[in-house]
Design goal:
Length: 237
């Protein structure tokens, strides 16, 4: 049905251009390009230190000093038959961007026992810490920094995207009981930066686009480190 203005636009076109909301059912999360299929919820926040500045003769603050900014949040995963990050680590390996860490020879594996117990190490002796090599993480906090990208698309075809950059997991916890039908794992993280929601029109928006993260940004170091490590791994093979 035409909207009465020359018949060029329909009521459906008008609604499509007007109502561009997304629910959790419309949003897909990816970690370094790998879809996270068991993510139940995600939250994030940005805080910055701001303090009032006072001078003699004024009861009210005359200005506010701006200090450091921090980004943090939490992730909630639904547990199936394996650790919630198992599939992510496997898919990252298959895609050529493994989420590994450099394991020292002295690292204690999950459930293991340290061979260094009762031994005396001289100061500066690095022999016990040799044989460093890339390995799969035993704990979530051993994962290197990664990017979480949230992409939303509704039934109208409207698409938006946001990204959380330089994510570092710091806490992990879970629990179960006979009253719980679903078992969940909660993780908290800190991050280097957040790219807010942006509309995608006629193309894709990459989290590490040069116009978003410039070469002088500290976040560019994360991108450079990933690229250097991939080159090193290829040369090693």
């Amino acid at each position: 049905m035409a909207n009465g203005i020359g018949g060029a636009n329909t009521l459906s076109d008008t609604l499509t251009r007007t109502y561009n909301a997304f629910s959790g059912c419309d949003i897909v999360a990816t970690i370094n390009g790998v879809v996270v299929g068991n993510l139940n919820g995600i939250s994030y926040s940005s805080t910055r230190e701001k303090a009032p500045i006072y001078t003699m003769g004024n009861v009210d603050a005359v200005a506010f000093g701006r200090g450091k900014r921090g980004h943090a949040g939490s992730l909630i995963f639904t547990n199936f038959d394996a650790s919630p990050l198992t599939d992510i680590i496997d898919e990252a390996e298959n895609s050529g961007r493994p989420l590994h860490y450099y394991r020292k020879g002295s690292d204690v594996p999950a459930g293991g026992r340290s061979f260094l117990l009762g031994q005396q190490i001289d100061e500066g002796d690095l022999g016990a810490f040799g044989h460093s090599k890339l390995a799969r993480p035993n704990y979530a906090d051993q994962l290197p920094p990664f990017t979480i990208t949230l992409t939303g698309q509704n039934e109208y075809g409207n698409t938006s995207v946001m990204a959380i950059l330089g994510v570092e997991l710091i806490n992990e916890g879970s629990g179960m009981s006979i009253d719980d039908i679903v078992t969940e794992t909660q993780m908290t993280f800190v991050a280097r930066g957040i790219i807010p929601w942006r509309r995608v029109v006629g193309g894709d928006l990459r989290a590490f686009d040069a116009s978003t993260v410039g070469p002088q940004s500290p976040l560019a170091a994360v991108r450079a480190a990933w690229a250097a490590r991939r080159v090193q791994e290829q040369q090693g093979n």
